[in-house]
C-alpha cells in the first residue's frame, strides 16, 4: 500500500512526463501515461486495500477482510477522511456479531468522518439504531432509524427498516412496564 501523498507525487510525475511525451510528438505514450496517472488519482480517493476488503466482505469472508484491513497500519495518516470513515465502517460490520460496544464505536466514528455513499451512511445509522435499541435507548434508536430512512433514497434498506420498526413496536421494555405498574399502584393508594 502506498501512502496517500506518494500516490499524488507519482500521479503528478506521470502527468509531467506525459506532457513531455506530447511535446516530443509521442502522442500514444502521452495518452498511456495520462491513463496511468488516472489510476493513481483514483487510488488516492479509493484506497486499494479498502476495495479489496469490501470484496472479501461481499463473499462473507470476514477473516480475509480483516487481514486486508490489518495491512493499514496508521489509518489517520495513510487514508483521506472518507477512507477513514470506510475503514471504521468495515471494522464495525466485522465486529457487529461479536462485540456490540466496539461496533458502536466504529460506526459512530464512521458517521462522524463521513461516508461518500448515502446508502452506506444509512446502513451505518441502521446498525447504530439496532445497537441503541438493544441497549434500551429507544429514543436514540428511533431518531437514528428515521435518519437512516431519509438517507435510503433508493429503498435498498426498506425491508430492514420496516422490520426494525416492527420490533420496536412489539418490544416492551422493563422500564415502561415498571413505570405503568408504579402509576397504577399510586392510583390504588389514593383511592383507599
UniProtKB/TrEMBL annotation:
The keyword Membrane applies. InterPro entries: TPR-like_helical_dom_sf (IPR011990). The chain crosses the membrane at residues 31-57. Keywords: Membrane, Transmembrane, Transmembrane helix. Residues 172-192 are annotated as: Disordered. The keyword Transmembrane helix applies. This is DUF2892 domain-containing protein.
Amino acid at each position: 500500500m502506498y501512502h496517500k501523498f506518494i500516490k499524488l507525487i507519482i500521479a503528478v510525475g506521470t502527468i509531467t512526463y506525459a506532457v513531455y511525451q506530447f511535446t516530443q510528438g509521442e502522442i500514444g505514450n502521452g495518452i498511456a501515461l495520462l491513463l496511468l496517472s488516472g489510476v493513481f488519482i483514483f487510488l488516492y480517493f479509493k484506497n486499494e486495500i479498502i476495495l479489496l476488503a469490501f470484496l472479501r466482505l461481499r463473499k462473507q469472508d470476514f477473516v480475509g477482510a480483516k487481514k486486508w484491513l490489518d495491512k493499514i497500519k496508521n489509518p489517520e495518516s495513510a487514508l483521506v477522511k472518507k477512507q477513514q470513515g470506510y475503514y471504521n465502517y468495515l471494522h464495525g460490520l466485522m465486529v457487529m456479531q461479536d462485540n456490540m460496544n466496539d461496533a458502536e464505536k466504529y460506526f459512530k466514528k464512521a458517521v462522524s468522518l463521513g461516508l461518500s455513499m448515502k446508502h452506506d451512511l444509512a446502513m451505518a445509522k441502521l446498525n447504530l439504531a439496532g445497537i441503541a435499541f438493544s441497549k434500551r435507548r429507544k429514543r436514540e434508536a428511533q431518531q437514528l432509524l428515521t435518519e437512516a430512512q431519509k438517507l435510503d433514497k433508493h429503498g435498498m434498506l426498506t425491508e430492514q427498516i420496516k422490520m426494525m420498526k416492527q420490533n420496536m413496536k412489539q418490544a416492551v421494555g422493563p422500564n415502561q412496564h415498571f413505570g405503568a405498574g408504579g402509576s397504577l399502584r399510586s392510583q390504588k393508594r389514593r383511592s383507599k
